[in-house]
Amino acid sequence: MSALEDIVRAPDGRLKTECAPIEAIDERIKRLARRMLDDMYAADGCGLAAPQLGELVQMVVIDVDYSGPSGKNPYVLINPKIVVADGEERETGEGCLSFPGITVPVRRPSHVVVQALNLDGDLMQYEARDNLMAVCLQHEIDHIHGVTMVDHLSAGQRIAAMRAYQEATAAGARPGDVSVD
Ligand code: ZN
Question: Which domain holds residue 155?
Fold first, then answer.
């Protein structure tokens, strides 16, 4: 199965499910982290959550820098929790590997602090303000609680987004495609 076929696409109940905290960082979890990173890079995404691969556990991977000059800079966050979300709200055009072909305007707090375990079991803290990392952290952590980007839209925006998504799907959009001409 290719990485792009591996990714769960909406609508799918697994994208609306509260995921279970990870109790032990064992080989299964380490393998899943590698598969998530491989699929994220293959799809040109900046983040991926475990339920997007059909695994209903609280793990997300993020790399907001990999396309830049700094090379790959992956983060693996296990049982991540947003401990602060404040600052002026900002609207960003967001895409999602589970909604190929669309970009939607989502408003979120501009500053977040997140605590999570890394693959070594160390408790890490991440802080981001006014950047893609701040958006990506919130977007991916939403996924492990069964929330997707379209859930942040007004009813009217959501109807328009789902119509655009259906059209993009019919036109053959694949994970990583963020808009269709
Ligand atoms: Zn997503």
Answer: 3-170
